[in-house]
Automatic annotation (TrEMBL):
InterPro entries: AA9, AA9_LPMO. It comes from the Eukaryota. This is AA9 family lytic polysaccharide monooxygenase. It comes from Aspergillus terreus (strain NIH 2624 / FGSC A1156). Keywords: Carbohydrate metabolism, Cellulose degradation, Disulfide bond, Polysaccharide degradation, Secreted, Signal. One of its GO terms (biological process) is cellulose catabolic process.
């Protein structure tokens, strides 16, 4: 898409952005799609699909808050959320609400955290997290504001639970980061947590773990300063590597390894030299709210 250097064009460009908000609400097991919020903790947000941001927030939630683990108020729904049994080595998926698809440029990743008590329904996610899957830039001929990103157009994340994952109950956190507003410190985070019970005899231990909050901060250029309409693919890749998004995934061994799910886009170029303005939520968000106001059981 080329952005005309006019206020009208810049404002119009917000329409697909606002209407492209989403949230992971379904778990996919053996090819079968669950009900919304059957295995995924439901947020208490009145508009469940709205993103978390560092600035110009929708409901004062930022990546610096404890609810950044699994989304606003979701722990209050943990006890009524079912726990899916999954064998280590199985491939599962987390699917978006309302059968929508990702229409923002940016990376996706999946983290896991084991419930220390053994009961994930009682676990807030304040322990250690490790990354098992990620997708960043992969289309060398793509548009950095669109399909240069592997996740662009996806309706679900599909990933393997590492074969050597120890048995127990876990939170599985799927996250997509929309970078279309990063130049204004308005990167958008879309995320949810599933509750699973891993079976098997695995005894692996990830070497790199994280705490949430603490995973990201707004001094990271990827979220505050990157400009998809101006920056080169090489510069974006450097910004990715300066954050946990660029860290290796754990494959079940004693150490982490590079993920084959991400690829190089070093030859990709920005689609346009002019930058659209980005001023947060607009009336388009209100229209989207009316269309998809029923997020679930809340």
């Amino acid at each position: 898409m080329k952005y005309l250097p006019t206020l009208f064009a810049a404002t119009a460009a917000l329409a697909p952005s606002a209407s492209a908000h989403y949230i992971f609400s379904k778990l996919v097991l053996n090819g079968e799609v669950s009900e919304d919020w059957q295995y995924i903790r439901e947020t208490t947000r009145s508009e469940c699909y709205m993103p978390t941001k560092f600035t110009n927030t929708f409901d004062n939630l930022t990546p610096n808050d404890s609810d950044f683990r699994c989304n606003l108020g979701s722990f209050s729904n943990a006890a009524k959320t079912e726990v899916a049994e999954v064998a280590a080595g199985d491939t599962i998926g987390m699917k978006l609400f309302y059968d929508t698809s990702i229409a923002h440029p940016g990376p996706g990743q999946v983290f896991m955290s084991k419930a220390p008590s053994g009961n994930v329904q009682e676990y807030e996610g304040d322990g250690e997290w490790f990354k098992i899957w990620e997708k960043t830039l992969c289309n060398e001929n793509g548009d950095l504001t669109k399909d240069a990103w592997c996740t662009y157009g996806m309706s679900q994340f599909e990933f393997q639970i590492p074969e050597n994952t120890p048995a127990g109950e876990y939170l599985v956190r799927a996250e997509h980061v929309g970078l279309h507003g990063a130049q204004a410190n308005e990167a958008e985070f879309f995320y949810s947590c599933a509750q699973i019970k891993v079976t098997g005899s695995g005894n692996g231990s990830p070497s790199q773990t994280y705490k949430i909050p603490g995973l990201y901060n707004d001094n990271m250029k990827l979220f505050n300063g990157l400009n998809l309409w101006v920056d080169s693919a090489d510069a974006i890749e450097t910004d990715i590597l300066d954050t946990p998004v660029g860290d290796d995934v754990w494959n079940g061994s004693g150490s982490s390894s590079s993920s084959s799910s991400s690829g190089s886009a070093s030859s990709a170029a920005a689609a346009a030299s002019s930058t659209p303005s980005y001023s947060g939520y607009s009336s388009y968000g209100q229209q989207y709210s009316q269309q998809y106001s029923q997020c679930g059981a809340n």
